[in-house]
Design a protein that fits this description.
The protein is α/β, with parallel strands linked by helices and 454 residues long. It folds into 2 domains: 172 residues, Cobalamin-binding domain (Rossmann fold), CATH 3.40.50.280; 213 residues, pyruvate-formate lyase- activating enzyme, CATH 3.80.30. Strands 11-14-15-16-17-18 form a 6-stranded parallel sheet. The protein has a 5-stranded parallel sheet with strand order 4-1-8-9-10, with helices on both faces. Helix 13 packs parallel to helix 16. The termini are far apart. The mean pLDDT is 94.
Length: 454
């Protein structure tokens, strides 16, 4: 049995490769390879490092996706931004498909709910090339919006939630020889994700836990991961060592939603050990953001000594309502303490970033000005995290009940840029004002600290 794993194109107003890796698909490929007799094939429309690509990248692996302007859907006509398809050139995607043998099964992942058109485009290409293959669609979309997914994205099978065992059962039903992997338990150990399928192993993803125990009203982490599962420290260390030894990997991208929570159980044992390792230096990056309330003197020292090069703190806002809906995960005093600890540990403040929610329902220009002024005073680099209404979350349900979002769900309404310009209540002038303010603060704080843009 021949099985093709596919990471699809993106259709959006903007997309940037901030170490975006299809980690769930890597895990699925590893499981199918370990526990079945299927032949594995791989096709990633977003891998900028694969053969046939002209790589333009920063030293740490971040970079721009190739893009092609496309026509905006009707719902987006009043959004004053260009709309594009992001990913490898279409000719390269098609040539790679043409080189493959006929497939029996094609496993396609999904991420943002509003990247619907990218999936539709990719599925059309796959069906044209492999008309007899069974299509299996998994990932974020069928997990958060199963009804809409099945009506808009025709496939032979849909996987909601964790896919390791579901995919193996599906393959077995088609005649593959399968030996089942154990059901996910507290240690969540599986075969290591199949990063060997990627175009480069210089920058590899790393997961030390699944989910988050907090209850932020705008976040879907608990919907996708109902139980907060943590890996054993020794297993994490073994994976890092294997990546270093086999692939000479030096940049590790932490995919955790809650890396520092329960830090004495997982983070400190792992990274204290790595901090003492003076022979093989690695660089760690946290694009998902860290809980600032968990950063004390000890954890700050470990972050610096272990080689965490990209630190972004989850600040969100000073607005009381947003703080409440963020499950009280950080306040002004905790943020100040975290930054002081990180500075004493050896970081320059201009090396540190902070996420601020932008476009949140009910948010005002004054809220944004106060939050940005606070970040400016701390000497941090602000990153505007534009609010996206995620299906199934408390905020999404409230917005539907108030008639701000359509019922039944229109997946394209969940696009963050669309929501910012059309639904957030911010005027075009206010949006431009806030973006300019953030850019000015970023430039000033970077220049003052002689930091690198994070």
């Amino acid at each position: 049995m021949k099985v093709l794993f596919v990471n699809p194109y993106i259709y959006d107003f903007s997309a940037y490769d901030l170490w975006l890796r299809p980690l769930g698909l890597y895990y699925l490929a590893a499981n199918v390879r370990r526990y079945s007799d299927a032949e594995i094939y791989w096709l990633d429309a977003l891998d900028r490092f694969q053969d046939g690509m002209e790589i333009r990248s920063r030293e740490d692996g971040r970079g721009k996706y190739p893009r092609e302007f496309v026509e905006k859907p009707e719902i987006y006509q009043d959004v004053p931004r260009n709309y594009s398809r992001y990913g490898i050139p279409l000719e390269l995607f098609q040539s790679k498909m043409a080189a493959f043998p006929e497939m029996d099964v094609i496993l396609v992942t999904s991420l943002m709910t509003y990247w619907l058109q990218g999936l539709q485009f990719t599925l059309k290409l796959l069906k044209q090339r492999f008309p007899r293959a069974k299509i299996v669609l998994g990932g974020i979309l069928p997990s958060l919006a199963p009804t809409e997914t099945q009506s808009l994205l025709p496939a032979d099978h849909y996987v909601s939630g964790y896919g390791e065992n579901a995919v193996l059962r599906f393959l077995e039903g088609l005649g593959a020889r399968v030996s089942y992997t154990p059901v996910l338990a507290d240690n969540i150990e599986s075969p290591l994700p199949a990063v060997d399928l990627a175009g480069t192993q210089k920058y590899v993803p790393l997961l030390t836990s699944r989910g988050c125990p907090l209850h932020c009203s705008y976040c879907a982490s608990r919907l996708l991961n109902p139980v907060f599962l943590e890996r054993r420290p020794q297993d994490i260390l073994s994976e890092i060592e294997q990546r270093r030894r086999v692939f000479n990997s030096r940049h590790f991208i932490i995919f955790d939603d809650a890396l520092l929570l329960n830090k004495k159980k997982r983070f400190l044992p792992v990274f204290s050990r790595l901090a003492r390792d003076k022979q093989t230096r690695s660089r760690f990056h946290t694009p998902n953001g860290l809980h600032a309330s968990e950063i004390d003197r000890e954890s700050a020292l470990v972050l610096h000594a272990a080689g965490f090069a990209t630190l972004r703190l989850s600040f969100e806002s000073l607005a009381p309502d947003i703080l409440r809906r963020s499950d009280g995960k950080v306040n002004r005093k905790q943020m100040e303490n975290a930054v002081n600890c990180l500075e004493r540990a050896g970081y320059r403040r201009g090396q540190l970033g902070a996420y601020l929610l932008f476009g949140y329902p009910g948010q005002t220009v004054e809220d944004m000005e106060k939050s940005l002024a606070f970040i400016k005073g701390l000497g941090l680099v602000p990153h505007l995290s534009v609010f996206s209404p995620v299906p199934g979350t408390v905020d999404f349900i409230e917005l539907q009940q108030r008639g701000v979002l359509a019922t039944p769900l229109d997946l394209l309404e969940t696009n963050k840029i669309y929501f910012l310009y059309q639904k957030s209540g911010f005027s075009l002038e206010a949006i431009l004002q806030i973006k300019e303010m953030a850019a000015t603060i970023s430039h000033a704080n970077l220049e003052a600290a002689e930091g690198d843009p994070l």
